Amino acid sequence: MKKSLRNLAVVAGGASAAFALAVSPASAVPSTVWTVSPSPASITAVNSGNVVLSVNGIAMTCTKSNGAGVGQSATGNPATIGNINSMAFGATGAPCTSVLGNVNATAVTPWTIVAQDYTAATGVTKGYVGNVKANVSVGGCNFTVTGQASGTYTNSTGALAVNSVAGELTVVSSSGCGSAVPVGAKPTFKGTYLFKVGTTIPTIVGSNP
Predict the structure, then answer these.
(1) What is the DSSP letter of 4?
(2) Residue partners of 28: CB distance under 8 A and separation at least 6
(3) Tell me: the pLDDT tens digits for 42-81?
(4) CA–CA distance, 17 with 5 (Å, rounded to integer)
(5) Can you state the percent helix, strand and coil of the chain, rounding each to 5?
(6) Distance between CA 114 and CA 136 in Å, rounded?
(7) Which 8-state DSSP code applies to residue 39?
(8) Which sequence spans correspond to the domains of the chain?
(9) CA–CA separation, 101 and 176 (whole Å)
(10) Which of 58, 81, 82, 86 is the most exposed place for a label (fewest CB within 10 A)?
């Protein structure tokens, strides 16, 4: 495994997997009143497509992921309009995988859902998932990632598309990973989650007071 890690580090050393869903600049008159409907509400989330954590060119892919939390109306910019209280990566019979082997990732919650800008014409809110922390292990490599991840939420589909910008997430501890996943590495995280409140798609609307 150490040899594999060294080889991967050489191959991937100059590569940084892009996974960009940047938060666009806030509009000239930022939305400050956020109406979440229903509110407060217990929300479930299931991935649509693969969820991928990439670090130094090594992709760690989950075909199954789900979470749960609470959404609520709020005022401010940025404003916390929800909490993710649980998040699971992988499932029985469908583990997360990488070239190093199966990946175990444990989210340390709560994470926050933060709104920054709303476009009424498209029903899209831009912001980020904050307070992110996850412990990851693969083979003999163990590391912890913290930070935030940019994303958008679309009212018509209930899709939270998370697409972090390089530099938003950081590896803050690492053991047994060698130079493949060193402390200070800047992973990226990509994944789309479909939100539901029971059978209803929740909506987020931002407006000026």
Answers:
(1) H
(2) none
(3) 999 999 999 999 999 999 999 999 999 999 999 999 999 9
(4) 17
(5) 5, 55, 35
(6) 24
(7) S
(8) 2-207
(9) 14
(10) 86
**Which pTM was predicted?**
0.84
Structure tokens at 208: 């000026």
Task: Name which of 113, 81, 103 is nearest 187 in CA terms.
Answer: 103
The conformation of residue 181, written as its DSSP 8-state character, comes to S
- What are the two backbone dihedrals, phi and then psi, of residue 6, each rounded to the nearest 5 degrees? -65, -45
C-alpha 45: how far from its chain's center? Answer: 12
Contact 11, 183 (CB under 8 A): no
- Tell me the backbone φ, ψ of residue 167, rounded to 5 degrees: 110, -15
And the tokens for 39?
């509110």
Q: Which amino acid is at 25?
A: P
Place of tokens 């100059």: 14
41, 186 Cβ separation under 8 angstroms = no
The count of other CB atoms within 10 Å of the CB of residue 53 is: 26
**pLDDT tens digits for 106-116?**
999 999 999 99
